[in-house]
Amino acid sequence: MYVAVKGGERAIEHAHDWLAQARRGDMAVPDLGVAQIREQLALAVDRVMAEGSLHDPDLAALALKQARGDVIEAVFLIRAFRTTLPRFGASVPVDTGDMQIIRRISATYKDAPGGQVLGPTFDYTHRLLDFDLVGDAAPAPAPESAASPDPVPHILSHLGEEGLMQPEPAPDAKGGPDVPDLTRAPLEFPASRPLRLQALTRADEGFLLSLAYSTQRGYGRNHAFVGELRIGHVRVAAYLPELGFDIEFADIMVTECETVNQFQGSKSEPAQFTRGYGLVFGQSERKAISMALVDRALRARELGEDIGDAPAQDEEFVLSHCDNIQSSGFLEHIKLPHYVDFQAELELIRKLRRDACAVPEAAE
Questions:
Q1: What is the enclosing helix (H) or strand (E) of 82?
Q2: pTM
Q3: What's 164's DSSP letter?
Q4: DSSP states of 290-314 as a string?
Q5: How much is the average pLDDT of 294-323?
Q6: Cα separation of 319 and 297, whole Å?
Q7: Nearest CA-CA partner of 322 in 309, 312, 332
Q8: Mean of the pLDDT values across residues 96-109?
Q9: In which order are the strands placed within the sheet that holds 272-281?
Q10: 244 Rama class: left (phi>0) / alpha (psi -120 to 50) / beta
Q11: Under DSSP, is residue 144 helix (H, G, I), strand (E, B) or coil?
Q12: Lowest pLDDT segment from 172-176, 226-230, 327-331
């Protein structure tokens, strides 16, 4: 007979105490500060902000500390905190063409106007452990050059000037009410491209990476070039009707990726390139590239392309499973008590076994 295990408030309190002790670790080791996490684990902080849909490096660092480095748990904490915040309005679309660039590369134009900027990247490291980091040695200062005051146009705009790139619809300059908001309304199908992009930008990075990889391996015929990947700071502003102009209130770092994909054309459109788009908080180029590849794959239907059985082209599959908070919640709930459900399954299995044994005896 299966016996249900009983727990209580005292056991839960003790579990919380044990968690706090495990989080702190060896008391002989100095405590890890939020500022240290924010400054030295910046890529993890950026991922928590992106998937948590809240730009606040200090809170993301605190969430990482509280979650013992578990990124999804940290994202959960940020999402929960986000729901407590008042909402004053929406910002106007950020102008990434006016970005203060720290990194800008293109795989399509070697001599891109405005130049390529390698910036801080792992791309050219040897992936060898650096044991100097065990100590407290400070790195050598990086050389600096004067920043250019001129705006750096998007590289794909040059293809657009030749009519070789499918134009994008002009954004609503005032962030009008027609723009869907995934954080305030449930996801509905078919989803518009703005809604899909919102879902992808806060989707789990690992899930998007796998889907993007699948498109490169042939599931969806989505061969792409990185037209431009740029990382830098953009200004965030809101339009105030009372004043009649925009007010800048923040400066945030974002990563933007535009991919170039072939399009064979249709009866109404000539052959040209199409675009996949990715934009995420912070420095997260793997996520931005993945997002751009999946965005382009999800456009297959609207571009009149053949839809096969590629998961990355299945809007319902991608958008319903990309959120790591929803997926981990549904997955992890099975470790909570299911004693009654299991008891019913147990009785069913026993009955089936009894019935199976009874049939041969009846036949004899």
A1: helix 71-82
A2: 0.90
A3: -
A4: HHHHHHHHHTTTTTT----S-GGG-
A5: 91
A6: 13
A7: 312
A8: 92
A9: 100-105, 224-240, 245-263, 272-281
A10: left
A11: coil
A12: 172-176
